[in-house]
Design a protein that fits this description.
single chain; nine-stranded mixed sheet; UDP-N-acetylmuramoyl-L-alanine:D-glutamate ligase; alpha/beta; four-stranded mixed sheet; globular
């Protein structure tokens, strides 16, 4: 088993509705296949890494309500330590409304709720959470000051850091300089870097801008167009795996969790990116965030079949 992975981030209850198309303002349409599931970028990424066999701890805040208590029970059942699943009596459990159109494209609105209570003070009080950690994952569905504190603490302890900057917001050079792997999607990369991405040149310029501001490595996920990696020494382009997408909600989270797992295992970065693309592709073939996250056996089987298909 590789180094321990710590995920500090969000936990939401997802309300998912399949729709025939994205509708206009003021328009009412009929949806189908309503589903409620556990989600949130932090929880999704923690479970993704754990299903691959990673040693994972998860620090989050849930509302002390029926949904939060059910979610906490599920996370403990999944193998996470109860003492790091903090309960917040003054705010409801975070919620996300997810619309899924044909082909798996989605629109998501998040009400952070208790995620906003995951403060720097609570992080400091959970000091034991850092024991044995080699890789940190953070996102931006929790307070930015908490993310900053987590990145600072990780750097002081010599821990590798991954930041999934979603939802996108302005990030200072101070924050970016503490990020070993910055993993935005194409839209987030455009917003944070301030560079239009229309082609490969745009990808390179956006990544270069983020490297200039302090990130050590930039990985831009592009869905069906694959993945782009860049640091000061090399560029790597990894093609996507073609699948019939049903719901792309957790594809990015599967990618980030797999990235953390691969880095914790000490794997070569190109091999890690291929595994992460495979996990993301598999996640897009099932409805719901956490129900879609694949196991290591599923990822290995998928890669074997794709490689066999290429040889054939």
């Amino acid at each position: 088993m590789g180094k321990r992975i710590l995920v500090i981030g969000s936990a939401n209850v997802d309300f998912i509705l399949r729709i025939p198309r994205f509708h206009k303002a003021g328009e009412t349409i009929l949806g189908e296949d309503a589903l409620t599931a556990f989600g949130g970028k932090g929880a999704n990424q923690a479970i993704a890494a754990r299903r691959l066999g990673g040693a994972v701890d998860f620090l989050t805040a849930l509302g002390d309500d029926a949904q939060g208590r059910a979610y906490r029970k599920y996370l403990v059942w999944s193998g996470f330590k109860a003492k790091y699943l903090l309960m917040e009596p003054k705010k409801p459990t975070g919620m996300a409304l997810i619309e899924i159109a044909p082909g798996g494209a989605n629109r998501i609105i998040v009400a952070p709720g208790a995620n906003r209570a995951l403060s720097p003070l609570r992080l400091k009080k959970a000091g034991q959470v850092w024991e044995g950690v080699g890789v940190l994952i953070a996102q931006l569905e929790t307070p930015l000051e908490t993310v900053r504190e987590a990145l600072d603490a990780a750097k002081r302890k010599g821990i590798l850091t991954i930041l999934n900057p979603a939802p996108a917001r302005s990030l200072s050079p101070r924050i970016l300089s503490r990020v070993d792997y910055l993993v935005p999607n194409g839209i987030e990369a455009q917003e944070i870097a301030g560079v239009k991405i229309k082609d490969e040149e745009g990808l390179s310029k956006a990544a270069s801008e983020l490297l200039k501001r302090g990130a050590k490595n930039v990985i831009i996920t592009l869905g069906e167009k694959g993945t782009y990696f860049k640091n000061r020494l090399e560029e790597i382009r990894v093609d996507a795996f073609r699948v019939k997408a049903v719901d792309t909600t957790a594809a990015g989270d599967a990618f980030v969790g797999t990235l953390a797992w691969g880095l914790a295992e000490g794997r070569d970065i190109e091999d890690v990116l291929i595994h992460a693309n495979a996990a993301g592709a598999l996640a897009a073939t099932r409805l719901g965030a956490q129900p879609s996250l694949p196991t290591i056996s599923a990822v290995k089987k998928f890669l074997r079949e794709r490689r066999k298909g290429k040889k054939g």
